[in-house]
Design goal:
By secondary structure, this protein is α/β, with parallel strands linked by helices. The protein has two domains: 5-209, Spore Coat Polysaccharide Biosynthesis Protein SpsA, Chain A (Alpha-Beta Complex), CATH 3.90.550; 246-321, no CATH class. It has 13 helices and nine strands. Strands 1, 2, 3, 4, 5, 6, 7, 8 and 9 form a nine-stranded mixed beta sheet that branches. The chain is globular.
Length: 322
């Protein structure tokens, strides 16, 4: 069978969320042409049993499911690569097992892809917390290079669950996921570079859960920082290999990669911020994605105004103590 969309779902430690996720995928209004690929990344819980139980209630969907089982826990990037390797759909969509999608997502995105002959269709999304949701409006931009600029400056979310992507864009250009945080961003930069046609739907479908303590995106500070620096270097290397000159936006990317250090109360980490990608430091004053107070904190760090940083840390500690 020729599939229109292959939906790839990495599965690891999501037993409290996966039933809602799978239900939202099987309840899509797009009834035909959807392939579901669940990648069991050695999950230690009952996630896979829950998926199979939910699937048994959808016999028409069940025959279009593939299960991949990793012999070792390899991480979300490896799971996505495994799914992509067997996918047959014209378009690829990645879904995280703790999130869920509105029922019209597949149909609307595929319709837009065909109407506009698009390589990439993207949309808004919801940041979903335990008691409320916030719609995250994305920029209405169709030019690939402008989209890359928005990605590098954090004006466009790098996650691939808001993007329906033509499978040949991955396969023809050998785009894969590299292990660690920001793997989506790195892949997105490459996908937008090779895309000829991009279209945007000004509607939110995807619910990005922010309260799962075992989320694939939750790691300690040092691990997250190492991931983001490695992915940043990979993005820079790719753009350089394509002779793309985006110096200002690359400096924004470097600031984004190390900005978590400014959220701490540890002065040693402010010194570390100063030493990582030092050529980007003074761009902190004009970095558009940081709130003003963090630009001031970063700017004071860049100028080595340590008494002001000491004061900031003291105030922050007292505020946390309350």
């Amino acid at each position: 069978m020729e599939y229109k969309i292959s939906v790839i779902i990495p599965v690891y430690n999501v037993e409290n969320y996966i039933e809602r996720c799978v239900g939202s995928l099987f309840e899509q209004t797009m009834k035909e042409g959807v392939e579901y690929i669940f990648v069991n990344d050695c999950t230690p819980d009952s996630s896979m049993q829950i998926i199979e139980k939910v699937a048994s209630g959808y016999p028409d969907r069940q025959k279009h499911i593939q299960y991949i089982h990793h012999s070792l826990n390899s991480g979300v990037s490896a799971a996505r690569n495994s799914g992509l390797a067997v996918a047959q759909g014209e378009y690829i969509l990645y879904i995280d097992g703790d999130d869920w999608a509105d029922k019209d997502m597949f149909a609307d995105m595929y319709k837009a892809a065909k109407e506009h002959d698009a390589d990439i269709v993207r949309s808004d999304f919801f940041s979903t917390y335990s008691t409320y949701e916030k719609r995250m409006k994305q920029a209405d931009e169709a030019d690939p290079m402008e989209c890359i600029k928005l990605l590098l400056s954090e004006k466009l979310h790098g996650a691939l669950w808001t993007k329906l992507v033509k499978r040949t864009l991955y396969t023809d250009n050998k785009i894969v996921f590299y292990d660690g945080n920001w793997s989506d961003l790195r892949a997105s930069v490459q996908l937008f570079y090779y895309a000829k046609k991009i279209t945007y739907i000004p509607k939110a479908y995807y619910h990005y859960v922010q309260y799962n303590p075992y989320s694939l995106s939750v790691k300690n500070l040092e691990s997250r920082l190492a991931d983001m620096l490695r992915q940043t270097d990979g993005i820079i290397e790719f753009l350089k290999s394509q002779n793309v000159q985006l110096d200002k936006y690359i400096r924004y990317l470097k600031l984004a990669a190390k900005q978590t250090l400014l959220f701490t109360c540890d002065k040693k980490l402010f010194h570390k911020w100063l030493q990582i990608y030092p050529e980007s430091n003074l761009y902190i004053w004009i970095y558009p994605s940081l709130p003003l107070y963090l630009r001031i904190v970063g700017g004071c760090t860049a100028l080595r105004l340590w008494p002001l940083i000491d004061l900031w840390i003291l105030v922050k500690k007292r505020h946390i103590g309350k």
